[in-house]
C-alpha cells in the first residue's frame, strides 16, 4: 500500500478531530440533561429552533455567526469553538505522536506507515475523549456512556487493524480490566460502607482494556490515582471542601493516552531499577 504523507494525514486528522469535537459538544450539553444525542436535531439552547447544518461547521460556524445565534441573536458560548479547535489540534497531535520518531527530518516528507494506523486511531480516541469526559464529570459527576461503552467498541474494532493488540486481547482486556475494577470498588464499598467506585469509571476502564490490554489498563488506573491525589488533595485543602465524591474520570482520561504511548517505556525503566529488564 502506498504511504500517505504525514503532513497531509495530520490535516485530515485535524479536520476529523474538529468534527468529532462538534459532536462532543452535543454530548457535553445533552447527556447530563437526559436529552437524546440523535433526536431532536441540532437546536438553539435559547429559543429551541432548529440550527441549519451550515451553522454547525466546527469553529467556522461560530465565526460566521460572530458568536451569536442566527435565530434569536443570543450569545453562543465560546466554549463550543474552543472545544472544537482543541479537538482538532489533539487529532493532529494523535497522528504525530503515534508516528514519532519520524522517518525523515523534513516535515513535508514525513510518512505514516500503515503499521501505525492502529496506534494513530487509538490515540485519536483517547486524546479527544479527555474533553467530554472532563467537562461532564467535573460538573455533573457522570461519565457519558457514549464515551465509556464507545471506548469498548472502538477498542475491539481497532484490534482488527495491523499493528495493535489482537481481538482476543482486546476482548479479554475489556472484561478483566472492567471486572477487576468493579471487584475492587465492590470490596472497598463494603469496607467503607458507601459507594467507592462509580459504574461509569468501571466502564471507562473496560474501554481502556479493549484499547490497550489488561496490563496497560491497570497501569492507567494507577497513574490516574496518583494524578488524582496530587491534584485533589491540595485542591480540597485550599477550597476546604468536605465532599466525598471525587470526579475520577478526568484523571483516567488524561492517564490513558500517556500509558498507551509511553507505558512500555515506564515499565522498562521501573523494572530496570531492580535489574529485571
Automatic annotation (TrEMBL):
It holds the Pfam family A24_N_bact. Residues 15-95 form the Prepilin peptidase A24 N-terminal domain. It is found in: Cell inner membrane; Cell membrane. The chain crosses the membrane at residues 6-27, 85-102, 114-134, 146-165, 171-192, 204-231, 251-276. It is a multi-pass membrane protein. Plays an essential role in type IV pili and type II pseudopili formation by proteolytically removing the leader sequence from substrate proteins and subsequently monomethylating the alpha-amino group of the newly exposed N-terminal phenylalanine. This is Prepilin leader peptidase/N-methyltransferase. It comes from Hallerella porci. The lineage of its organism: Bacteria, Pseudomonadati, Fibrobacterota, Fibrobacteria, Fibrobacterales.
Amino acid at each position: 500500500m502506498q504511504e500517505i504523507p504525514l503532513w497531509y494525514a495530520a490535516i485530515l486528522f485535524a479536520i476529523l478531530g474538529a468534527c468529532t469535537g462538534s459532536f462532543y459538544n452535543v454530548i457535553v450539553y445533552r447527556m447530563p440533561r437526559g436529552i437524546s444525542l440523535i433526536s431532536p436535531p441540532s437546536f438553539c439552547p435559547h429559543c429551541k429552533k432548529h440550527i441549519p447544518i451550515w451553522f454547525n461547521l466546527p469553529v467556522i460556524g461560530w465565526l460566521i455567526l460572530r458568536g451569536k445565534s442566527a435565530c434569536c441573536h443570543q450569545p453562543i458560548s465560546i466554549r463550543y469553538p474552543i472545544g472544537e479547535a482543541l479537538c482538532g489540534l489533539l487529532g493532529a497531535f494523535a497522528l504525530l505522536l503515534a508516528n514519532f520518531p519520524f522517518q525523515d527530518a523534513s516535515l513535508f516528507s514525513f510518512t505514516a506507515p500503515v503499521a501505525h494506523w492502529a496506534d494513530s486511531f487509538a490515540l485519536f480516541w483517547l486524546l479527544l475523549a479527555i474533553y467530554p469526559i472532563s467537562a461532564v464529570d467535573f460538573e455533573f459527576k457522570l461519565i457519558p456512556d457514549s464515551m465509556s461503552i464507545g471506548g469498548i467498541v472502538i477498542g475491539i474494532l481497532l484490534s482488527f487493524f495491523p499493528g495493535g493488540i489482537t481481538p482476543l486481547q482486546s476482548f479479554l482486556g475489556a472484561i478483566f480490566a472492567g471486572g477487576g475494577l468493579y471487584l475492587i470498588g465492590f470490596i472497598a464499598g463494603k469496607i467503607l460502607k458507601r459507594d467507592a467506585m462509580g459504574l461509569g469509571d468501571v466502564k471507562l476502564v473496560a474501554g481502556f482494556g479493549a484499547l490497550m490490554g489488561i496490563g496497560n489498563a491497570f497501569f492507567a488506573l494507577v497513574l490516574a490515582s496518583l494524578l488524582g491525589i496530587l491534584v485533589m488533595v491540595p485542591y480540597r485543602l485550599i477550597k476546604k471542601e468536605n465532599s466525598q465524591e471525587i470526579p475520577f474520570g478526568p484523571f483516567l482520561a488524561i492517564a490513558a493516552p500517556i500509558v498507551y504511548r509511553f507505558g512500555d517505556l515506564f515499565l522498562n525503566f521501573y523494572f530496570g531499577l531492580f535489574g529485571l529488564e
